[in-house]
Amino acid sequence: MRMPAANSYQPDMLGPDFEQLILPQPADYEGPVQSTLVRRRATQPGRRAVLYVHGFNDYFFQQEMAAQYQQHGYRFYALDLRKYGRSWLPHQQPNHVRNLREYYADLDDALTVMQAEGHDQIVLSGHSTGGLVTALYCQDGRNRGAVSALFLNSPFLAMHQSWVNRHVGVPLAAAAGRFAPDLKLPAMLPSVYGESLHQQYRGEWDYYLPWKPLDIFPVTLGWLRAIHAGHQRVRRGLAIAVPVLVLHSQQTAAGKGWNDEFFRADIVLNVRDIRTLAPRLGERVTVQAIAGGLHDLVLSAPAVRAQVYRTLFAWLATTLG
């Protein structure tokens, strides 16, 4: 990529502490493409930095997380992947890709910018689908050598579906995605998860609902095929060279009606899948459960997310010194 000028950063929607940089990408089957790098303004220079990658039906808005990293000596960057959040263009189906490798160009360019800005010890962090993408990138991404450690927050390593759907329905739909990649299906994710987060409903957080709606964007067969292929790779086993920390909630909860247990559990993924599959990511994987954690652990209750940060920064101190 041609390096953008330092003054190419523009003000970000999160206010004066943040700024954003548009990263143009080659056009794909839907037309023009871009990704967006967001950074928290630096209070002091430093070599260490983190690049955060959001999940499905998501974008970066977690300002407290950014402040925590900065307080612990890490320059904070986040990447809104193509067709998500700040990067979503009017002609695009939100969240739609046909191969998870399409995201590699977004990560390549973000890491290149960070290196050019003086960071030679970079932590890559992914939540949920972002956890799957970043894990695969650390396996075979072009610029994976820029990454010193990988932190995964409730990574999406398997479908949280019935046995029949996981072993019959999803593989059949993924196979059909080869021939009808743009065909849409309902995402089948609970709207109660969004209710547990957003302050207009039952939650603590304020974010832009058109980019992270309670009624989840539909998925395409092409997206499902891409995710299924990624899950198969994880199941076979990866060989990520850098140390990996995987955190997840201690329990999974389910139900159609509201239950206060949803404030203390993962209601998107099955944590047993994460416990089972995370050790297959590489030889230096640490897996730990967080009692009372939500699917996005850093959006949990204050005492719970405080434990998340204690665990994370203790691990980074031990791992990176």
Q: Could you give the topology of this structure?
A:
Elements: E1 10-12, E2 15-28, E3 31-40, E4 48-53, H1 63-71, E5 75-80, H2 104-116, E6 121-127, H3 129-140, E7 147-153, H4 163-176, E8 184-185, H5 191-197, E9 219-220, H6 221-236, E10 244-249, H7 271-277, E11 285-290, H8 302-320
Parallel strand pairs: 4-5, 4-6, 6-7, 7-10, 10-11
Antiparallel strand pairs: 1-2, 2-3, 3-5, 8-9
Helix pairs in contact: 4-6
GO molecular function: hydrolase activity
Domain Serine aminopeptidase S33: 47-251
Organism: Hymenobacter algoricola
Describe the structure using short key phrases:
11 strands; two-stranded antiparallel ribbon; nine-stranded mixed beta sheet; Rossmann fold; alpha/beta
Question: What this model shows, in words?
Answer:
With 321 residues, the chain is α/β, with parallel strands linked by helices. The protein has one domain: Alpha/Beta hydrolase fold, catalytic domain (Rossmann fold), CATH 3.40.50.1820. 30% of the residues lie in helices and 21% in strands. It contains 8 helices and 11 strands. The strands form 2 sheets. Strands 1-2-3-5-4-6-7-10-11 form a 9-stranded mixed sheet, with helices on both faces. Helix 4 packs across helix 6. It is globular. The two termini are 32 Å apart. The model has no long low-confidence stretch (mean pLDDT 93).
Number of helical segments with 4 or more residues:
8
Low-confidence stretches: none
- Which strand order do you get reading across the main beta sheet? 1-2-3-5-4-6-7-10-11
Shape: globular
Mean pLDDT rating: 93
How much is the radius of gyration in Å?
18 Å
Architecture (CATH level 2) name: 3-Layer(aba) Sandwich
Main sheet properties: 9 strands, mixed
Find the CATH topology: Rossmann fold
Q: Return the CATH class.
A: Alpha Beta
